[in-house]
Amino acid sequence: MIPLALSAVCVNLLQLVNVTGVSLTPKGPHMARFTLLAPLTLLGCTAIGALVPAHAEQVSSAYTSAAGKDCRTLSGREVDTDDEASEQLCRGPAGLVVLKNETDLRETVTVGRNAEEAGRQLAAAQGFGPFNSTTDTIEWRLGGNGKPFAMIQRWHIADNGDLDAKGRPRNEQMLVVTRLPPGAACHVAYIDVKANADANALARKAADQLARGFDCGNDKVAIICHSGRAVELAKR
């Protein structure tokens, strides 16, 4: 059973508007030209002591790898001497596949029954402006029927305002909750890891409570609890 409450958990849902940003070149044969999320507009904030499941349900997690060695490369090309573009297909649970695209040190991650379906999802167009990458491990939230309804992945977003001794940007971490087919696949919630000590638990709560009822065409991505530098960078 998922816990009915998290002690001293504060969840602030900041409703965001997706506004048009910079159009980038296609990242592979299964991915159309996409638009980054430009700085997002905050519409409101609702404080909730804890997210409580509407119905008691057995919810569990499963994990898969999106590491290059565990995925199949669909395409790859050299952009310049310092960068390559690649498109990889990784196995997920219950017949799902993960399509991961990387160009110019920026990634997008989307899900479907096959590469073509995954490339048509809104998630295939949801990227971030700064250089970024994802952790190889994907967490899947499974309902009582054993079918996945959301995935959680950790993103590393480069902060050009915070350089290390060698002049390289340090990374800020953010958890992204994505809803899954059937229906559309898209980002549901962002959780800033540094700003929230219980980020993993918050991400699971957000997935369990928000993903299945999330309307990718109309609902706005939620920032869960405290916003921080990673979320700020993701809005750029």
What would you say this structure looks like, in words?
The protein has 236 residues and is mainly β. It has helices spanning 115-120, 199-210, 229-234, and strands at 11-17, 20-23, 35-37, 41-48, 60-65, 71-80, 83-91, 97-103, 106-112, 132-134, 137-142, 148-163, 169-179, 186-192, 222-223. Strands 1, 4, 5, 10, 11, 12, 13, 14 and 15 form a nine-stranded mixed beta sheet that branches. Strands 6-7-8-9 form a four-stranded antiparallel beta sheet. Strands 2-3 form a two-stranded antiparallel ribbon. Strand 14 (186-192), helix 2 and strand 15 form a beta-alpha-beta unit. The longest helix is centred in the C-terminal third of the chain and has 12 residues, at 199-210. The model is unreliable at 1-50 (pLDDT under 50).
Percent helix, as a range, is 10-25%
**SSE string, helix = H, strand = E?**
EEEEEEEEEHEEEEEHEH
Biggest sheet, in brief?
A: 9 strands, mixed
Q: So what's the overall shape?
A: globular
Measured between the Cα atoms of the first and last residue, the distance is 38 Å
Give the DSSP E fraction (strand runs of 2 or more residues). Answer: 35-45%
Give the class from helix and strand content and strand pairing. Answer: mainly beta
**Extended strand count:** 15
Rg, nearest Å: 17 Å
Short summary:
This protein has 236 residues and is mainly β.
